[in-house]
Amino acid sequence: MMLVIGLLPGPGWANSASDSSESGMAVIVAQESSVTRINRDDLALIFKAKKRYWDDGLRIQAVNLPAAHPLRRAFSAQILGSNPEELDDYWRDMYFHGVRPPYVFASEEAVIRFVSSTPGAIGYVSSCATDHRVRVVMRLESGVPCQR
């Protein structure tokens, strides 16, 4: 079961002056979040729904891009050690235990809008897509050119 949510790019979607990396990926939280950094192990636990709460008790809401998106594929390979299709069986099993996979958003702008306005949310986008609405808590190499 996958819910894909899409938003069209809106004002403020362009790159902030703080990051001009052309192929990096940024793991993001809301600017107001108490989270300032995250490590790879915790990030993997979050995106496999094995870590569900931040240290301050706030429920974590992880969000993905669609399975075919190059950033999702790079993120899954680097953090989860597999591609999105290989995780299908995992999520089917988790679903029958009452655990749902992360929401899927159709665009990087949709991820930024959700993360910036949802307490506890975490997602990933191209480094060049970040702006004042979000805080970068980890940077990853993606090998995927930035799409502005």
**Protein structure class:** alpha/beta
**What is the count of distinct domains?**
1
CATH topology tier name: D-Maltodextrin-Binding Protein, domain 2
CATH superfamily (homologous) name: Periplasmic binding protein-like II
Indicate the CATH class: Alpha Beta
Strand order of the largest sheet: 1-4-3-5-2-6
Helical region count?
A: 4
Distance between the termini: 30 Å
Secondary-structure element series:
EEHEHHEHEE
Largest sheet: 6 strands, mixed
Mean pLDDT level: 86
Spatial shape: globular
Helicity range of the residues?
25-40%
CATH architectural category = 3-Layer(aba) Sandwich
Strand fraction band?
A: 15-25%
Structure summary, number of beta strands? 6
Low-confidence stretches: 1-21
Radius of gyration: 14 Å
Structure overview:
The chain is of the alpha/beta class. It has one domain (4-141): Periplasmic binding protein-like II (D-Maltodextrin-Binding Protein, domain 2). It is 26% helix and 20% strand. It has four helices and six strands. It has helices spanning 40-47, 70-80, 88-96, 108-117, and strands at residues 4-5, 24-30, 61-64, 103-105, 121-126, 134-141. Strands 1-4-3-5-2-6 form a six-stranded mixed beta sheet, sandwiched between helices. The model is unreliable at 1-21 (pLDDT under 50).
